[in-house]
Amino acid sequence: MNKDELVDYLKKTNMVLQSGKACFFIGHVVFDAYVTCEQAQGVSYDSMLCGFKNKTFFEMIPNQALFRIAKNNYEEYINNHKHWLKKRKKGTELENALKEIWIFCFKKNVTNKQLLQKYKRAISLSNDWWRYYGIIQEDKGEILRELIIPYFEKRFGMSKEQAQRFVEITSHPKEQSEFLSERKLFYEICLYIALNNNLKGLLSHRLYDELEKDSVLKKKIDIYITKYFFSKTDFYNYQILSTESVLKDVGRGLQEHTLQDIKKELQKLNFQKLKIEKTKQKLLEKYSLNQLDKKNILFAQSITREGDTRKTSMMTQLYYIFTLIDKIASLKGITYQQIANLTPEEVEDLLQGKKFSDKHYEKRENTVVLYEPRKKRTCFYGTDADDLFKAMNDFLLSDKEIKGNVASKGYSNKNLQTGVVRILTDPINEQFYKGEILVTTMTRIEFVPIMKKAAAIITDEGGIASHAAVVSRELGIPCIVGTKVATKRLKTGDFVEMNLKTGVVRKIKYELKKNEF
Question: Tell me: the pLDDT tens digits for 106-161?
C-alpha cells in the first residue's frame, strides 16, 4: 500500500490504537513477528501500522486480527488443552535460550564474529517469543468480554454487569500478581532499615558501602535484584539495578512513608487478595457449575494470569535484547539512541563494518512503518509520515466520548469516582501526588508505586484482564481501562467524574464548598 491507500485503509478498518514509549529497533522485532505468526498460532494477522515519534510509538492493529488470535486460543484451550499449554511452555524455553546468549555475551570476551552470531540468534529467538507467546493477550483479555461474559450472562440469567463482576472475581489469579509481590519484597527491605536506627542513619547519609556490610540487608537486596532485575525496562530502554540504586529507591520510600505506613502497606497487600479470594469462593458456591462452566472459568483465570506472566517475561527478554544492542553500540562507538534507531538487519550490517550517517539515524525519529503479512515492511518518512500521523490522530479523536471498560470499582464499590487527573508517561522521573487520578496509556511494573498512591486509574489501553485491571483490583481502587483517548482528551489538573457502571469519564467543573479550606 502507498500512503494514500493506507490513509483509506485506516478510515475503513476497525482499528485498535495503542501507544507508549518504544524505540524504532524493537518495533521491528515485535511487529515482524506478529505479521508472520500464522505457523505459530494457526491463524494469520492483518496488516498493521506503527509510528515512531519523539521516543513514542503509536500502534494500530485491526480489531478483527486481535479477536481472531484470541478466539483461536480460547478454542484451543477448550478443545486441546495440552496443545495450548505447549505453546505457553515455548515462551519460557525461548526466554531461557535468550538468557544463555546474554550470559555468553557478558561473561566472556567475545569476538566480533561470535557477537554477530549470537546477536542473529538472539533476534531470531526474540521474534519467535513474540510469535508464540508475546502475541498472546495482545487483546488485553477482551476475549473475556466478547465470549466469556456473554456466556455466563446467558447461562445464569445475569445482567451484563453481574456477569462481568462474576468473571472479574472468578478469573482473578490465585497467586498474588508479580508486580505486587515486587512491592512486598521492596517494603520488607524498607521495614528492615526503618527498624534499625543505625541503618537509617547510614541511609540518610547515603553511605551505601557501609549499608552493604549488613549481611541480612545485603541478602534481601540481592534476592530483590535477582528476581526483579528487569523492573526498570520498557519498550524504549533499560536501567541496570544495583545495590546502590535499590537503596536510593528505599531512601525515597522512607521519606514518603513512616514506619507505621510501611507496616500498613504490607498488611494491605495481603488484605485485598484475601478479600477477593473469599468473594470468589462465595460466588463459586452460589452457582452449580458444569464442566463447560469450569473450563470457561479456568480459561479466564489463565488469560488473566497471562497478563501478569507475559508482562514479566516480556520485560525480561527486552532487557536481554536492549543490553545486547547497547554493548554493540559501545563497541562500535555510537550511542544507544543511534543503535535504537536502526533496524535489526542494519545492526547486523553495523557488526560487519557498515557505517551510517547522522541523517540516517535522525530520520528514524519521525517514521511510520507498515507491516504486511508475507511482504517486506514499508517505511514512510518526512511529509508522508506527517500525513499518516495526522490520519492516525484523526482516527483516535473521532470518538467524542471518553469511554472504557470498568475493571475495578474499588473497596467502596460505589458507582461514581471524582478527582483531579495527572497524566503520566514516565513513572520513574515524573511527579505524582497521593489522591490524584492516574491517567496513562498502559501500566507496567514501574507504575505500581504510583498506582498505590492513586485514588483511581484510567488507561488508554487494556481489558479486564490487563495489568492495570488486575493490580487495581488487588489494590482495591477504581479503574477504567481501554478508553483509547484519555491521555489525549484529558490534561493534568482536570477534575473528572468516572462512572463505574458505564465506563464513561467526563470532565466536570469543580466548585468549592463553603468552609472547605
Answer: 877 888 899 999 999 999 999 999 999 888 888 878 899 899 999 999 999 999 88
CA dist 41 and 272 (Å) reads 36
The span from the CA of 481 to the CA of 442, in Å, is 9
pLDDT digits (tens, 9 = 90+) for 192-226: 999 999 999 999 999 999 999 999 999 999 999 99
435, 419 in Cβ contact below 8 A? yes
- The count of other CB atoms within 10 Å of the CB of residue 169 is 18
Question: What is the spatial distance between Cα 316 and Cα 230, in angstroms, rounded to a whole number?
Answer: 5
Q: Are the beta carbons of 343 and 26 closer than 8 angstroms?
A: no
CA 498 – CA 404 distance, rounded (Å): 10
Q: Which distant-in-sequence residues (6+ apart) come within 8 Å of 214 by Cβ?
A: 199
Residue type, 302: S
Give residue-wise pLDDT tens across range 447-475: 888 898 899 999 988 888 888 888 898 88
CB count within 10 Å of CB 127 equals 21
Q: State how far the Cα of 139 lies from the Cα of 156, in Å rounded to an integer.
A: 26
Distance CA 261, CA 265 (A): 6
Q: Using DSSP bridges, classify how beta strands 504-507 and 402-403 pair: parallel, antiparallel or unpaired.
A: antiparallel
Helices 291-331 and 467-475, packing angle to 10 deg: 110
Q: Which three cell numbers stand for residue 366?
A: 519521525
Nearest-angstrom CA–CA distance, 451 and 410: 13
Are the C-beta atoms of 448 and 182 separated by less than 8 Å? yes
Q: Which three cell numbers stand for residue 158?
A: 445475569
- The pair phi, psi for residue 437, each rounded to 5°, is -95, 120
Beta carbons within 10 angstroms of residue 358's beta carbon = 8
Nearest to 405 by CA among 62, 181, 185, 144: 144
Give the pLDDT band of residue 307 (cuts 50, 70, 90).
confident
Are 352 and 116 in contact by the 8 Å Cβ rule? The answer is yes
Q: Residue 277 has which C-alpha cell? A: 479470594
